[in-house]
Amino acid sequence: MISFHNVTKKYGLHTVLDEVSFEIQPSELVILNGSSGAGKSTVVAMLIGAEKPNRGTVEVDEMVVNNMDANTLQLYRRRVGVVYQDYKLLPKKTVFENVAFAMEVCEEPQELIHEQVPLVLEKVGLLQYQDQFPQHLSGGERQRLAIARALVHNPRLLIADEPTGNLDKVNAQGILDLFSKLHSEGATVLLTTHDPLVRDILPGRVLTIDGGKVY
Ligand SMILES: Nc1ncnc2c1ncn2[C@@H]1O[C@H](COP(=O)(O)OP(=O)(O)O)[C@@H](O)[C@H]1O
Ligand SMILES: [Mg+2]
After folding, report:
1. Per-residue confidence at 59, pLDDT binned at 50, 70, 90?
2. What pLDDT, on a 0 to 100 scale, did the predictor assign at position 86?
3. Contacts of 201 (CB under 8 A, 6+ apart)
4. Ligand 1 binding pocket includes 71 (Cβ within 6 Å)
5. Ligand 1 closest atom vs CA 85
6. Which of 41, 73, 81, 105 could be joined to 158 by an S-S link, Cβ 3.0–4.6 Å?
7. For a substitution probing ligand 1, which of 17, 41, 43 has the most ligand atoms within 8 Å of its CB?
C-alpha cells in the first residue's frame, strides 16, 4: 500500500530523513512514533505529495507520489483520507457543512452529499451536532469532525498526524478506538504520535522515527 524507498528529505542543510525505506501493507494499522521534530509530519507531507523527497521514491498503491503532475495529485488526494494535526476546520461552517465542503470542492452532486455526510457523522458519533459550529465542540469532537471529513470519499488509506496530540486521556482513548474501528472495517491506517503510550492503547505495528531513520 505504502512504500518509501531510499527516501532522503532535507530542508536546507538539515537532513530530516536519511535513506529511509519502509513498507505498509494493505489493511495494516501502523503507528509512527517519534519525538517532536523527528519528521513525522514530513512523512505525511510526502505521502500526500505536499513535499517531495530529495532522493528516493514514495509509492502508494504502486503509484509514485513524488512524480505526479498536479491533476493526478488532485485525483490521488481524494482517495486518501488525511487528518491534520491542527484539524483545519472551517469556523464559519457548521459540522454538516464542514464535511459537505470536502465533497463540494470535488463537485459531488448535492444528493450524494446529503446521503453521505450523515453517514460519516454517524460513524464518528457527531450526527446530533450536525448544526453546531466547531467553536461549540470539545477538542475530542473537533478531532472527530476532522476524521469525518477525511472519511467522506470512503478512502482505503487513512493518515492521521498526531490525532491525539491535543487531547486529554479520555478523549484520546475515544479517538484511538475510532481508528481501531475504521481499521477493523478494512482501512489501512497510518497514525503518527509523539506519545509512547499510544502503542499501549492501540494494537498495531510500531515504526519508530529517530535521527533521520525509520525502523
Ligand atoms: N517547511 C519546512 N522548512 C524547513 N524546515 C522544516 C519544514 N518542515 C519541517 N521542518 C523541520 O524538519 C524537522 C522535522 O519536522 P516535522 O516533520 O514537522 O517533525 P514532527 O512532525 O515529527 O514534529 C524539524 O526540525 C522541522 O523544524
Ligand atoms: Mg508533526
Report:
1. very high
2. 86
3. 172, 173, 176
4. no
5. 21
6. 81
7. 41
